[in-house]
Amino acid sequence: MSVPATMRAARLHRVRSATEPELVTVDEVPVPAPGPGEVLVAIKACGVCASDLHVVQGVTPHGPVLPQVLGHEPAGVVAAVGDGVDGWMAGDRVAFQMARPCGRCAYCDVGREALCRDLSVPGVDADGAQAEYAIADPRFLTPLPSTIPFEQAAILTDAVATPYHALKRGGVGEGVVVAIFGLGGLGMHAVQLAKLAGADVVGVDLDPVNLERALDWGADEVVDASDGKPARRIKELTGGGVDRSFEFVGSNATVDQALKCLKPGGRATIVGLTPQPMQLMPEALFVASELELVGSFGSTAADLNELIDLVDAGRLDLSRSVTHRTDIEGFPDALRQLESRDEHPIRIVVTYE
Ligand SMILES: [Zn+2]
Ligand SMILES: [Zn+2]
């Protein structure tokens, strides 16, 4: 595979501020060369994600290094390998996690890479993969069976793996009753994965189109949260509350409702991010009901491998997940569409020739 000298890449030049909008452009830049122990991947598809919005809005914990290539949900084909890389060769189909844990700390040792103190996430705090080529760490490459289209592999790495990880943190299974708050890309996949695990699912959202779609994707019930008190309705529907709730919105109001809709002994798992301090129910109620509140962040290499097996085996159908596609020149518009929710995208993917 011959690698050109330059490529198209979607880059952030300026984060949004009170006085100026962000500046994202598609630029002609040098193709990065794989260093020792690195792999160069020709990107075939890369998802557009709410985390990209957080980067351009300047609300990530570690700011971007400008100008920075965005994108952290890639899949593609190995184009070249650096010195000392074994087991990979040009032409291999791959999916990969952009997150780069250190691989040496106590958390990495037990497979909880998301907690690594030295975690770097290219696309968020370094050059990412919304480009014709990107550098990958071979430790986080996963072989991609030919049965899985690149655009589905791209969304697996975050949009599907993040809710999958959360469902494992929360604990779902046959007959477990769950409520899922926020039926965007992550929440819709949570509905699908919870049903696959045998759970009874209540979907919660403000948007009637999203509620209708959740029913279509297998949710047993949906609750319109526009009165601000969906927990009350969930308790009526379930005869006293759910076993597990999952919050994909990242707001105080939904975290509060995700706790309040639990039955005694229930567990709420929070995935959405907000810088606001938590404001919760009366403490005595939390204690007397023996509730549990856990956070879930990102996913692991093991999650991605398990999901690839599920899709390859035909058990997880992602054919409806990518609702909008564009080429890289359309990336700035795709970001705007994600923010406005125009046409209710589940997932927008940039595809490459
Ligand atoms: Zn993402
Ligand atoms: Zn580590």
Provide a compact summary of the structure.
The chain contains ten helices and 16 strands.
SS-derived structural category = alpha/beta
Shape descriptor reads globular
The helix content, as a percent range, equals 25-40%
For the secondary structure, the number of strands is 16
Strand content: 25-35%
Could you say what the CATH architecture of the largest domain is?
Alpha-Beta Complex
- The tally of domains stands at 2
- Summarize the biggest pleated sheet: 7 strands, mixed
Q: What ions, cofactors and ligands are bound?
A: zinc ion
Order of helices and strands: EEEHEEEHEEHEHEHEHEHEHEHEHE
CATH superfamily of the largest domain: Medium-chain alcohol dehydrogenases, catalytic domain
Keywords:
6-stranded parallel beta sheet; Quinone Oxidoreductase, Chain A, domain 1; about 350 residues; Rossmann fold; binds zinc ion; alpha/beta; single chain; 10 helices
Structure commentary:
With 353 residues, this protein is an alpha/beta fold. The chain folds into two domains: 6-144 and 321-351, Medium-chain alcohol dehydrogenases, catalytic domain (Quinone Oxidoreductase, Chain A, domain 1, Alpha-Beta Complex), CATH 3.90.180; 161-295, Rossmann fold (3-Layer(aba) Sandwich), CATH 3.40.50.720. The protein contains ten helices and 16 strands. Strands 3, 5, 6, 7, 8, 15 and 16 form a seven-stranded mixed sheet that branches. A six-stranded parallel sheet has the order 11-10-9-12-13-14, with helices on both faces. Strand 12, helix 7 and strand 13 form a beta-alpha-beta unit. Helix 3 (150-170) packs across helix 4 (185-196) and helix 3 packs across helix 9. The radius of gyration is 20 Å and the shape is globular. The two termini are 14 Å apart. The model has no long low-confidence stretch (mean pLDDT 94). One zinc ion is lined by residues 49, 51, 72-73, 158.
